[in-house]
Design goal:
It is built from 13 helices and 13 strands. By secondary structure, it is α/β, with parallel strands linked by helices. It has 2 domains: about 170 residues, Aspartate Aminotransferase, domain 1 (Alpha-Beta Complex), CATH 3.90.1150; about 240 residues, Aspartate Aminotransferase, domain 2. The strands form 3 sheets. The protein has a 7-stranded mixed beta sheet, sandwiched between helices. Strand 11 and strand 12 form a beta hairpin. Helix 12 crosses helix 13. The longest helix is centred in the last third of the chain and has 23 residues. It is globular and about 65 Å long.
Length: about 425
């Protein structure tokens, strides 16, 4: 029978957080703030990472299945990538008034891998890439409206917290539901003749809700509608790119967009993202659409990406992620069913997830509205105490350097935590 584990020692993390709040608003930014985890149970400051593990400033070691929110596709502290980056620093440097040859090498490599990529523009973050892609679409079409589905970053046109964003800007973006073609068609009709682009995450991953693999024929239907209506189709592959296949979700699911955005896994943690797309659309950036940054051409990230891509191909990483992830998802599904906890297993093999259900007899008016939230908080409290770093509101990832033993320990931690959750908050 599973027993509760004691609370972790997190004294240094908490002390640093108090200092951080004096130095910066909220101490740490956005999704890394403690209220996005379980306050008082999770570390706030990390010391280092190795393989598929992280170690916090208090010395607690965790199997990390959040993977820095996705960039770590191989593992932490990859020796081959480190070597190439250090060599670039010491032999050539990395920040100049003009570009270095590695930019051509990197862009050429992407055009060889990604189905839609005839041209490439390197930027730094996922928000940079999605915002640039929508600007390209507006520049190409001369139209204003953006139809979006999924999380696309923190810039004004797509940010989920509207504080500080003018209503006029928000009015130029409309959202549609993933997997529901009729909803997309309604939004197209509502904005007929003024839609610049459709931007969609090819695998649905709404916050704190089950992941939705593309329903059969859905992505092709979106492609067909965009073509018929002369709307630029953008796949936001910041999470799926280089993880679900070398060429991204567009390769795996066989549907090619006009433009695509990539980031996260391309450089195994180095700040690099990009817009890749058909020359017809990308060419507006020659003069009509402006894009520039002091740091976009920096070479270290591209050096890291070239080595990362080499390792991904050489070690057949995506095949491994799908094979091991398929087994992990099957085991996870069995464990959840055996526990009888009202919860849903979802995801694709490289991106598993558990969400907690609000049962019909626990809904509004039953007195049990908060039970599913209490189950979620308690479950994640027990998993972090067992050394498994996952997040309540974000899906998880499998990294290449997660060993079979790591994945088995993760399943053990999940199983015991579910057993304890069911015991403390039994289903009615």
């Amino acid at each position: 029978m599973a027993a509760e584990f004691p609370k972790l020692v997190l004294e240094k993390s908490m002390s640093m957080f108090e200092d951080a709040k004096r130095l910066s608003p909220g101490g740490v930014m956005g999704i890394r703030r403690p209220y996005n985890f379980v306050q008082g149970e999770y570390p706030i400051f990390l010391d280092k990472g190795y393989g598929g593990h992280i170690v916090d400033v208090d010395g607690n070691d965790y199997i990390d299945m959040l993977c820095a929110y996705g960039p770590i596709i191989l593992g932490y502290n990859e020796p081959e990538i480190n070597y190439e980056v250090i060599r670039q620093i010491t032999e050539r440097g990395f920040c100049f008034s003009l570009v270095q040859p590695i930019q051509n090498d990197f862009e050429r490599r992407i055009t060889e891998i990604v189905p839609c990529a005839e041209q490439v523009i390197p930027v730094k973050t996922g928000s940079d890439a999605t915002t640039l892609a929508t600007r390209i679409a507006r520049g190409y079409t001369g139209k204003k409206m953006i139809l979006r589905c999924g999380y696309h970053g923190w810039h004004d046109w797509c940010v989920e917290n509207h504080g500080g964003v003018p209503g006029e800007t928000l009015a130029l973006t409309d959202e549609f539901e993933y997997g529901q073609i009729d909803d997309l068609e309604r939004k197209i009709e509502a904005h007929k003749g003024d839609i610049a682009c459709i931007i969609i995450t090819p695998v649905g991953h709404p916050g704190a809700k089950p992941i939705i693999p593309p329903p059969p024929g859905y992505l092709q239907a979106v492609r067909d509608i965009a073509t018929k209506e002369k709307i630029v189709l953008i796949f936001d592959e910041v999470r799926t790119g280089f993880r679900v296949a070398m060429g991204g979700a567009q390769e795996r699911y066989g549907v090619t967009p006009d433009l695509a955005t990539f980031g996260k896994a391309v450089a195994n943690g180095y700040p690099l993202s990009m817009v890749a797309g058909k020359r017809e659309f990308m060419s507006v950036c020659e003069s009509k659409v402006f894009v520039s940054s002091t740091y976009f051409p920096n070479s270290l990230e591209m050096v890291a990406a070239m080595k990362c891509l080499e390792i991904l191909e050489r070690e057949k990483v995506q095949d491994s992620l799908w094979s091991r992830g398929t087994r992990f998802l099957a085991d996870l599904d069995r464990i959840v069913k055996d526990s009888h906890v009202p919860a849903t297993v979802s995801g694709i093999p490289p991106m598993p997830y558990i969400t907690f259900d609000q049962a019909a007899n626990e809904g509004p008016g039953t007195g049990g509205e908060k039970i599913y939230k209490a189950r979620r908080e308690y479950f994640y409290t027990q998993t972090i105490r067992r050394g498994l770093f996952i997040q309540p509101y974000h899906h998880w990832y499998i990294a290449h350097r997660h060993t079979d033993a790591d994945l088995q320990k993760a399943l053990w931690a999940i199983g015991e935590s579910l057993e304890l959750t069911m015991r403390k908050f039994p289903a009615k």
